[in-house]
């Protein structure tokens, strides 16, 4: 039980006060009415005695009673009707609410911290009113009148007569059988005569004389002169007199509840939900078969059995209505306005006098009489009575003892006895015995079960519970309280359950969960009793326990009830938040239930919004918005493909974010920007972002262009199992327009949704989110004015689709507003889009605290017009053979109102495409004209020129491959470099299938600028991703080696043989029939193919699948003078044709692709990276030596493939490149797959810098000097004439390097092996056997040698060993070079 | 058991871990019975606490594990024997708990495990 203002020691005496009746004459009543009080009311504040009362019991023992209170009441001849009492109690309870801002106690029990108000004033008010309004009953003497005050006024004509009239009236009421009510204690009621005197108006003299008369007639102890109204009412305002009545009379309670009950309550009519979550089942158990009908019993209080009661009970009705009157008229009425403080004292004195002189002697006398009667009577259960009597005799509450004695002695109803016995026992001073709780239990049980009198049982319980509480027996108290809850009175049950809940929480170890449970039960009963505020309070209290523990269904139930109660109490905000709780938490409710919740929520919300139609839109909780997943896209939607035309993919919301590709795009943009800005990326550069998402950099305000739409993608999620229908969904924004003139217009136009001339807003009329579905909505804005835009959120009507569609059966339930309900049920509201930026982690402060950066993706700045480019691809293939050349067309359209310029395209794969070099203008410009036409520029040749090369030259600069330029950035050759608004240009574009087989994703980034410079946006970009699938075609391998023949050389060592192996690796037999190699071209700064050394007659060089072919070409150095005049970027192209058409390899597109592949090849890291600074000279030497072995010959193989597609023969063309760098090393057209490196052991020591790199390989050295022996193949010598045969041999030494080389020629045979000696031993070199020579760059030196033979035979002359070293190097590289080539000579005998 | 019943396993934070035969009132009664369960568990030596609470026609039987998991069973027929199957539940429960995937008190044990 909650704490009470009154202690139990105060409560019990106050519950059993001696009752005194008051009977007033009309005139007396008039006098008191001047104070707006009845006589009884007038006495009320003074009815407690301030002094002690002494009283003797029959045993002459003195009892001291402190704070005795007497209850004076006007005689009402009708017993109060139960209905009226009920109403009174109801009003009392609803009028007493917890004070605003009451500080609640915090109780900690286990994990629970609960805010609980310790006091329950409504319960105390209820108890007080209940005990006071209890009708007197026959079997006991509580609330029976002990005495009667007869009141007349001094101003009456015949006061004495009036007194006797009153006396007769009293007698009539008490003894006439017409009046069964009120009850009187004993027949001989004490009559006390009171003369009221109005001091201000009456004649004092007369009053005194009347009083004298009275004294003589009734005795001094039986009458009193009470002077009141000393103050004239017009003086009332002068003096501030305390108003002691206000606290006793019905408080000026604001009966809000009444007005609430008036209105129709649609919510409660929806029984459906109630049934599902009802606690009714709990209540049924409480009822114990006790019917509401107590009539059959003698202890019957319900006077309704008397039919007259309800009809002719005007008194009672009046009393009740007068109560209402006073209650209502209370406002502004000052009680006791005519009374001075002296009058107050007089009244106090009067009560004192009455009690001491009149009442107490009367009581003492009565007790004695009763006692005598009792003693004289040897009746039934004597022992019991005496025992009881003995108890009572010790009691401190004589008036109760009297009642009790009377009770025991007189009637058959013994029930009250144990109750009173228990109470008395409790009150005994220093009680040695324990409180006899079982007495109470017995009493309660008897009252309830046998007497069927709930009112008495309730009184008993209220007292007993309070007694138990005072002894901290909370669990017993709780049990007692719970036991009395029953169906017949919801209010009582509610109050008792609440008190029981308080008992649980006040236990030594608080029973939190029991508390919560009983609070719920109490709340339920309160709500049934119409006490909505109390119900709400109980549920809220209980909610604290259930919250956040996972009892979701319980939570939902409570929230639902809280929502409903709040709604009926017009606490709409609370209602909304409670319903919101049910809906937004992951609910385990069924779909049906959720649908019901949702509808109810919408209904409440609708009411909220109707209350304030002009107020801000409410925040809707549903559906969820994953605000961080919000994406913003600037620009128009992509156009779908139009026939052959295929629009650039650009950026769209349909693309998934891919960090790798976005990084790639960023790099591409940086690249092009750096090229545009001459190699420097300006500090103000930020990559253009057309689509903002949670991955993009949102720290800056994004820039949007006026007249270009902004699309916001909002990610909705419906957590419910029922579908949600959003209608009229649009974005909510505010816009701060900026004047075109530049001066800032500070006027912020908030929410100018109705001004489409500023910003157009797209509205989605219907957007359905199914149950538990995540769905995105794309909402557009069309800015028509420059300025700052802030996208605030979304606004929509939230509703659900017709219930009967998804949820069956719900419409059939009574009280459910089907059809109309669900159709009209939608609420306009908004949801904010607030995106939290990324967590900052830069400074120390940011690292130690949790700070988030801004996210500005929803705050775009609308800038002035910019050009807008659209790019379309025509005849763009999706599949290519590796190396295939295909011609496509690109259309550039300027769809804006600004001219654009500086159009460039950048790609990581420049070798994939070209717009042609400067020579490209010759090709037909329209795609239709180029149909069935070779991609290449060709010239018809006659077949005679077959094996010799046709020479042309071209500079790489013409093809965009200059020194220092970025080959990835390709300017688009617009005819006038400017694309005017609305203009479109179609340009040819050649594509070459990448060399690697598979699917290729190739990114193009188009860059363009406005002709008019814009401060905010310098450039714009357009993206395109082409996806090309390539299949295998040819595989080309080539080697180059030095030709040993020196014959055709004009004194220079530059003669090479090129071997080209071509393999058809295509395996798709269905498609490609065969490949024809139509032309092999060389391209080099220094070398050129001279002729084909092709011995076979396979001129067409056909290769079917898996076939291989080999070509051999002779290459020569270009003429010196050519090389000299040509710039270093000038390449010589030599075409060797196998067909009858020459493809001009130095023109577009062949040369373009060649240069592109070359530049991409050059970008690859070099194999040798000499880094040793110490041996700088050595490095140089090595480089030099390496250089000797280097060539820069590039081979282009041009082919045609015959393909059958859809039973149509197609000819595809293509080209492969082989870049030859080193003599003797095989090069491939197809990049060789690198073997994945073996797993290496981790090395923990520093690798020593060995001199590996400084030592050139034997191979490299051997290429320094080319040697050849010139001698006759056979030599006839007459051995018989001359035994020695001398043969002159010329040794030609040719320096291939660009440096001076020291050469040592050693003719002596090596004597390392005897076997070798045997072979060579038969001939010897004569003359100088060791030469030391210095050969200048590319010098050829011949040595005349003499070989001496003694026998005929075949000899190998290739024995001279040639050592070479660079002249400026002293000791290094004394490496020999072996001429392993056999040089056989036949010596014949003549 | 012919009558209806409601079974719940409650974690140490008073959070329901597993529920069976959900009836709205059952939750409230079971939850309210936790007070008496907690009280009884220190008074008795057994893990099975028999009937700890009563509300109207509902009897509440409880079983407490060493880890302070409480098995609460609501039943409308007084039947101590029938409640013996707490040990079976306990066995299954222990098996589930020792499963490493079971994150303490945080997710609902799958019904299929029982």
Automatic annotation (TrEMBL), chain A:
Residues 1264-1366 form the TPPC8 C-terminal Ig-like domain. Transmembrane segments: none annotated. Coiled coil: none annotated. Residues 301-311 have a biased composition (Polar residues). InterPro entries: Ig_TPPC8_1st, Ig_TPPC8_2nd, Ig_TPPC8_3rd, Ig_TPPC8_C, TPR-like_helical_dom_sf, TRAPP_III_complex_Trs85. GO terms for cellular component: TRAPPIII protein complex. Residues 1026-1218 form the TPPC8 third Ig-like domain. Residues 288-319 are annotated as: Disordered. Residues 882-1022 form the TPPC8 second Ig-like domain. Residues 654-881 form the TPPC8 first Ig-like domain. GO terms for biological process: collagen biosynthetic process; Golgi organization. It comes from the Eukaryota. This is Trafficking protein particle complex subunit 8. It comes from Saimiri boliviensis boliviensis (Bolivian squirrel monkey). The lineage of its organism: Eukaryota, Metazoa, Chordata, Craniata, Vertebrata.
TrEMBL record, chain B:
Pfam families: Sedlin_N. Its main location: cytoplasm. SUPFAM superfamilies: SNARE-like (SSF64356). It comes from Saimiri boliviensis boliviensis (Bolivian squirrel monkey). GO terms for cellular component: perinuclear region of cytoplasm. The keyword Coiled coil does not apply. The lineage of its organism: Eukaryota, Metazoa, Chordata, Craniata, Vertebrata. This is Trafficking protein particle complex 2. PANTHER family: TRAFFICKING PROTEIN PARTICLE COMPLEX SUBUNIT 2. It is found in: Cytoplasm, Perinuclear region. Keywords: ER-Golgi transport, Transport. InterPro entries: Longin-like_dom_sf, Sedlin.
């Amino acid at each position: 039980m909650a704490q009470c203002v009154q202690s139990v020691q105060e409560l019990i005496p106050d519950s059993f006060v001696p009752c005194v009746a008051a009977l007033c004459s009309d005139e007396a009543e008039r006098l008191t009415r001047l104070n707006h009080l009845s006589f009884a009311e007038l006495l009320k504040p003074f009815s407690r005695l301030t002094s002690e009362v002494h009283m003797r019991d029959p045993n002459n023992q003195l009892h001291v009673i402190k704070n005795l209170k007497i209850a004076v009441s006007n005689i009402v001849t009708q017993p109060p009707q139960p209905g009226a009492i009920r109403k009174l109690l109801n009003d009392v309870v609803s009028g007493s609410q917890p004070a605003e801002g009451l500080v609640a106690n915090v109780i900690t029990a286990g994990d629970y911290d609960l805010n609980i108000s310790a006091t329950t004033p409504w319960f105390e008010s209820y108890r007080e009113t209940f005990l006071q309004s209890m009708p007197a009953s026959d079997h006991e003497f509580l609330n029976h009148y002990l005495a009667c005050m007869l009141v007349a006024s001094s101003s009456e004509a015949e006061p004495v007569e009036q007194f006797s009239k009153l006396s007769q009236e009293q007698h009539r009421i008490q003894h006439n059988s017409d009046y069964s009510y009120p009850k009187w204690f004993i027949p001989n009621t004490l009559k006390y005569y009171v003369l009221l005197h109005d001091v201000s108006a009456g004649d004092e003299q007369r009053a005194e004389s009347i009083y004298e008369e009275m004294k003589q007639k009734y005795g001094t102890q039986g009458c009193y002169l009470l002077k009141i109204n000393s103050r004239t009412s017009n003086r009332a305002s002068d003096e501030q007199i305390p108003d002691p009545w206000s606290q006793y009379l019905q408080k000026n309670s604001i009966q809000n509840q009444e007005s609430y009950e008036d209105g129709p309550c649609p919510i409660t009519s929806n029984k459906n939900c109630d049934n599902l979550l009802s606690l009714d089942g709990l209540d049924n158990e409480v009822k114990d078969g006790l019917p509401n009908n107590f009539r059959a019993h003698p202890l019957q209080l319900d006077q309704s059995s008397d039919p007259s009661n309800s009809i002719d009970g005007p008194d009672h009705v009046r009393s009740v209505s007068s109560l209402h009157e006073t209650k209502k008229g209370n406002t502004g009425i000052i009680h006791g306005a005519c009374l001075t403080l002296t009058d107050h004292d007089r009244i106090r004195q009067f009560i004192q006098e009455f009690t001491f002189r009149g009442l107490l002697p009367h009581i003492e006398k009565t007790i004695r009489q009763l006692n005598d009667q009792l003693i004289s009577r040897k009746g039934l259960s004597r022992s019991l009575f005496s025992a009881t009597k003995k108890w009572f005799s010790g009691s401190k509450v004589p008036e109760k003892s009297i009642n009790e004695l009377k009770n025991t002695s007189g009637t058959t109803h013994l029930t009250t006895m144990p109750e009173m016995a228990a109470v008395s026992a409790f009150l005994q001073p220093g009680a040695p015995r324990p409180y006899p709780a079982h007495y109470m239990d017995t009493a309660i049980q008897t009252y309830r079960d046998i007497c069927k009198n709930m009112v008495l049982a309730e009184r008993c319980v209220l007292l007993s519970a309070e007694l138990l509480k005072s002894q901290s027996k909370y669990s017993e108290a709780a049990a007692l309280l719970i036991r009395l809850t029953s169906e017949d009175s919801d209010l009582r049950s509610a109050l008792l359950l609440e008190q029981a809940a308080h008992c649980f929480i006040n236990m030594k170890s608080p029973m939190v969960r029991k508390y919560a449970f009983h609070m719920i039960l109490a709340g339920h009963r309160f709500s049934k009793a119409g006490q909505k505020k109390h119900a709400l309070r109980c549920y809220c209290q209980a909610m604290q326990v259930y919250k956040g523990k996972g009892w979701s269904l319980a939570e939902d139930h409570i929230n639902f009830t809280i929502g409903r109660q709040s709604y009926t109490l017009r606490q709409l905000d609370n209602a909304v938040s409670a319903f919101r709780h049910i809906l937004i938490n992951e609910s385990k409710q069924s779909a049906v239930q959720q649908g019901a919740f949702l509808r109810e929520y919408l209904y409440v919300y609708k009411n909220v919004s109707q209350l304030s139609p002009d107020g801000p839109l409410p925040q809707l909780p549903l559906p969820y918005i994953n605000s961080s997943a919000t994406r913003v896209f600037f620009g128009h939607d992509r156009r779908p493909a139009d026939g052959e035309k295929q629009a650039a993919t650009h950026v769209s919301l349909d693309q998934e974010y891919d960090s790798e590709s976005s990084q790639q795009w960023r790099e591409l943009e940086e690249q092009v920007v750096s090229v545009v800005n001459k190699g420097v990326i300006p500090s103000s550069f930020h990559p253009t972002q057309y689509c903002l998402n949670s991955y993009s950099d949102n720290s800056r305000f994004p820039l949007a262009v006026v007249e270009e739409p902004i699309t916001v993608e909002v990610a909705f999620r419906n957590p419910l199992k029922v579908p949600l229908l959003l209608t009229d969904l649009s974005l909510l924004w505010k816009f701060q327009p900026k004047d075109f003139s530049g001066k800032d217009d500070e006027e912020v136009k908030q929410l100018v949704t109705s001004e489409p001339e500023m910003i157009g807003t797209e509205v989605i009329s219907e957007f359905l989110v199914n149950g538990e579905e995540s769905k995105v909505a794309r909402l557009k804005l069309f800015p028509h004015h420059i300025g700052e835009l802030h996208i605030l959120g979304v606004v929509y009507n939230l509703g659900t689709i017709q219930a009967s569609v998804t949820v069956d059966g719900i419409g059939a339930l009574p009280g459910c507003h089907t059809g109309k309900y669900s159709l009209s049920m939608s609420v306009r509201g908004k949801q904010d889009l607030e995106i939290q930026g990324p967590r900052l982690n830069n400074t120390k402060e940011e690292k130690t605290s949790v700070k988030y950066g801004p996210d500005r993706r929803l705050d775009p700045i609308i800038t002035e017009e910019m050009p807008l480019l659209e790019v379309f691809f025509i005849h763009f293939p999706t599949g290519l053979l590796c190396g295939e050349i295909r011609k496509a067309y690109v259309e550039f359209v300027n769809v804006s109102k600004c001219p654009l310029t500086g159009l460039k395209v950048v790609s990581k794969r420049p070798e994939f495409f070209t717009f042609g070099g400067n020579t490209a203008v010759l090709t037909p410009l329209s795609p239709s004209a180029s149909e069935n036409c070779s991609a290449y520029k060709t010239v018809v040749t006659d077949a005679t020129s077959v094996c010799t090369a046709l020479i042309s030259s071209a500079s790489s600069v013409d093809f965009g491959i200059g020194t220092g330029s970025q080959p990835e950035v390709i300017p688009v050759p617009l005819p006038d470099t400017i694309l005017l608004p609305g203009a479109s240009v179609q340009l040819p574009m050649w594509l070459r299938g990448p060399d690697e087989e598979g699917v290729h994703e190739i990114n193009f980034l188009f860059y363009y600028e406005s002709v008019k410079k814009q401060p905010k946006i310098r450039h714009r970009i357009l993206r395109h991703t082409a996806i090309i699938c390539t299949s295998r075609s040819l595989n080309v391998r080539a080697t180059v080696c030095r030709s040993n023949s020196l014959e055709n050389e004009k004194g220079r060592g530059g003669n090479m043989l090129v071997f080209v192996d071509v393999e058809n690796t295509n395996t798709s037999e269905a498609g490609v029939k065969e490949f024809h190699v139509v032309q092999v071209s060389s391209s080099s700064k220094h070398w050129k193919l001279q002729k084909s050394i092709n011995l076979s007659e396979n001129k067409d060089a056909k290769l079917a699948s898996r076939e291989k072919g080999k070509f051999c070409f002779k290459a020569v150095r270009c003429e010196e003078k050519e090389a000299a005049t040509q710039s270093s970027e000038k390449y010589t192209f030599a075409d060797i044709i196998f067909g009858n058409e020459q493809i001009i390899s130095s023109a577009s597109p062949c040369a373009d692709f060649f240069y592109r592949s070359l530049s991409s090849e050059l970008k690859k890291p070099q194999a040798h990276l000499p880094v040793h600074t110490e041996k700088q000279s050595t490095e140089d030497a090595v480089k030099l030596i390496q250089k000797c072995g280097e060539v820069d010959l590039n081979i282009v193989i041009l082919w045609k493939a015959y393909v059958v597609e859809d039973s149509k023969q197609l000819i595809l063309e293509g080209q492969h490149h082989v870049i030859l760098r080193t003599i003797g090393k095989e090069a491939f057209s197809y990049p060789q797959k690198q073997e994945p490196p073996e797993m290496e052991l981790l090395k923990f020591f520093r690798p020593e810098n060995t001199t590996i790199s400084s030592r050139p390989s034997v191979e490299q050295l051997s290429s320094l000097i080319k040697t050849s022996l010139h001698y006759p193949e056979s030599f006839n010598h007459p051995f018989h004439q001359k035994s020695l045969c001398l043969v002159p041999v010329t040794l030609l030494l040719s320096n291939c390097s660009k440096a001076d080389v020291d050469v040592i020629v050693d003719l002596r045979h090596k004597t390392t092996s005897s076997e070798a000696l045997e072979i060579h031993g038969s001939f010897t070199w004569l003359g100088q056997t060791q030469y030391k020579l210095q050969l200048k760059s590319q010098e050829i030196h011949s040595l005349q040698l003499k070989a001496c033979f003694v026998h005929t035979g075949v000899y190998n002359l290739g024995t001279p060993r040639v050592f070479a070293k660079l002249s400026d190097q002293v000791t290094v590289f004394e490496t020999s070079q072996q001429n392993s080539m056999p040089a056989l000579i036949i010596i014949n005998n003549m | 058991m012919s009558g209806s019943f409601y079974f719940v396993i409650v974690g140490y934070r008073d959070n329901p871990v597993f529920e069976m035969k959900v009836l709205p009132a059952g939750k409230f009664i079971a939850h309210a019975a936790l007070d008496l369960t907690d009280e009884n568990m220190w008074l008795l030596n057994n893990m099975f606490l028999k009937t700890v609470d009563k509300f109207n026609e509902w009897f509440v039987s409880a079983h407490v594990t060493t880890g302070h998991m409480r098995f609460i069973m609501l039943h409308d027929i007084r039947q101590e024997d029938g409640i013996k199957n707490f040990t079976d539940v306990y066995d299954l429960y222990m098996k589930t708990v020792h499963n490493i995937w079971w994150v303490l008190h945080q997710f609902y044990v799958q019904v299929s495990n029982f």
